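User: Sequence recovery, please. Input:
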């Protein structure tokens, strides 16, 4: 998801617990959803959807009941109402609550798999955005992040649980369907002017990026580069927007060269009418309708969402406090794409801008990068997860160099592709690749809030130039600081000082007159300077 393009969410967002609470922890230990098979009926004149869902579950513990997330319909006209649940063609008991359904079974042994058939219908309160696009045409777009899939299908709506899927969407025949996975077929009924479009995938993904969209599109498939997946772009017929996506294959090739093979069957870039500027749905990226202009100016947005295919969709954070493993990675690896394609100076300007954003954000929000403090997932889409996450990765690259950095990123991905990881998992892989200990770095830069706030004083004594540096923040950090000594004869000298304490004193024997010093001239450290 692209932070700078984030739009406000306006309806139906309940406060969501960030840490893996008792409910998710219980289900994490009890069950694993293997597959979702969804048959969805959409209509031209009404917002109601009708769903028949087969959900296959492997039970990790002996169980006689379990819960799935599904926002129910009770007092008002919105929400999903279950009409029937069967197991082996036999109806079974269930109880539906506001946001969950409890399903009762005979005792199922540990390790067994069962497929439950759930039938329900209703008007989604959120998660599936039904309405009109900017041209007045009717559209349907799933928009699940962070835990809004439960508004339109029954699931374990948490990144810790991944499943493969089949989606069959029954619509009026004028609608084109996009989704994750591979389009298997499309059958049309000329009598009732309806069509059924079938997508399927054997790749496990979290519910936050399992989607479909239905609209009237024009589409363009880019010429296929060697060993590259098919890239198809979808825009509204009134929009001359294909130029915006013409660099998608180049961007994809860049990240494949550095990280590894693209993790999904194909890549769709889709103009959409949803709530975010960009949403990284697995192999089926949605871009806000207003972002598509046909001017070819959204390469960084495209790069950000393509990075998410590896980090966030395939190698997924285990729980929300580790969101920076998705958003920080997408932000910084986009910066590296900028560095390689637009030059070092553009990259450094971007890093400075992002450092300034971190400083402004921290003045009001004292949050660690591994955010165990926030209590709402939506609030985690902030500078901490994006720009600070990017700066932490930047400092790691500065410590180990470009080659080792990319090697560690690729190893981390290869270790956790199609799975889940924590911040500690990432640091452990980084240590294994670089043969260096980053425990202190992890504790200071990832687990505690803040950054160094550095001040200094200078004086000349007995032809020696003394500089006293101080850290002025509450937390203590260990780090290397480069600084440039500027002499009155217009020469300069680059020095490096390692901070092991809050105060460090450095003496510079010199026959020259020191005019001033400049901290971190090459933008290697996340810090603020106290004047």
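Assistant: Recovered sequence (531 residues):
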């Amino acid at each position: 998801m692209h932070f700078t393009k984030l739009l406000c969410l306006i309806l139906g967002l309940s406060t969501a617990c960030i840490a893996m609470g008792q409910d998710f922890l219980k289900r994490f230990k009890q069950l694993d959803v293997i597959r979702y098979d969804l048959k969805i009926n959409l209509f031209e004149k009404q917002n109601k959807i009708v769903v028949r869902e087969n959900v296959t579950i492997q039970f990790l513990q002996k169980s006689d009941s379990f819960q799935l997330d599904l926002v129910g319909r009770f007092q008002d006209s919105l929400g999903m109402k279950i009409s029937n649940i069967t197991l082996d063609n036999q109806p079974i008991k269930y109880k539906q609550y506001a946001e969950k359904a409890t399903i009762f079974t005979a005792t199922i042994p540990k390790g067994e798999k069962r497929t439950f058939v759930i039938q329900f219908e209703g008007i989604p309160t959120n998660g599936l955005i039904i309405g009109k696009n900017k041209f007045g045409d009717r559209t349907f777009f799933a928009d699940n992040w962070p835990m809004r899939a439960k508004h339109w299908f029954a699931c374990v709506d948490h990144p810790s649980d991944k499943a493969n899927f089949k989606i069959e969407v029954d619509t009026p025949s004028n609608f084109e369907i996009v989704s994750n996975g591979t389009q298997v077929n499309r059958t049309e009924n000329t009598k009732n002017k309806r069509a059924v479009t079938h997508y399927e995938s054997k790749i496990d993904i979290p519910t936050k990026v399992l989607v479909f969209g239905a609209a009237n599109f024009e589409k363009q498939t880019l010429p296929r580069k060697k060993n590259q997946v098919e890239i198809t772009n979808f825009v509204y017929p009134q929009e001359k927007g294909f130029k915006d996506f013409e660099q998608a294959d180049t961007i994809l090739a860049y990240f494949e060269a550095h990280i590894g093979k693209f993790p999904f069957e194909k890549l769709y870039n889709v103009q959409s009418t949803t709530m975010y500027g960009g949403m990284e749905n697995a192999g089926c990226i949605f871009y806000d309708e207003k972002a598509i202009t046909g001017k070819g100016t959204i390469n960084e947005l495209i790069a950000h969402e393509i990075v998410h295919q590896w980090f966030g969709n395939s190698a997924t954070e285990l729980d929300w406090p580790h969101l920076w493993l998705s958003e920080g990675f997408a932000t910084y690896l986009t910066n590296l794409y900028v560095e390689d394609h637009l030059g070092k100076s553009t990259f450094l300007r971007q890093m400075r801008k992002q450092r300034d954003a971190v400083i402004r954000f921290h003045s009001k929000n004292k949050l660690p990068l591994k955010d165990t403090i926030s209590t709402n997932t939506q609030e985690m889409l902030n500078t901490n997860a994006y720009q600070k996450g990017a700066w932490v990765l930047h400092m790691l690259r500065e410590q180990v160099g470009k080659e080792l950095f990319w090697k560690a990123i690729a190893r981390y991905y290869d270790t956790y592709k199609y799975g889940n990881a924590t911040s500690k998992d990432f640091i452990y892989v980084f240590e294994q690749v670089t043969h260096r200990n980053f425990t202190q770095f992890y504790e200071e830069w990832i687990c505690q809030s803040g950054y160094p706030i550095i001040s200094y004083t200078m004086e000349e004594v007995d032809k020696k130039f003394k500089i006293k540096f101080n850290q002025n923040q509450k937390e203590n950090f260990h780090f290397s600081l480069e600084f440039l000594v500027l002499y009155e004869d217009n020469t300069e000298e680059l020095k490096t000082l390692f901070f092991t304490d809050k105060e460090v004193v450095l003496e510079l024997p010199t026959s020259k007159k020191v005019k001033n010093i400049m901290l971190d001239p090459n933008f290697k450290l996340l810090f603020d300077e106290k004047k």
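Residues 3-18 have pLDDT under 50 and may be disordered.
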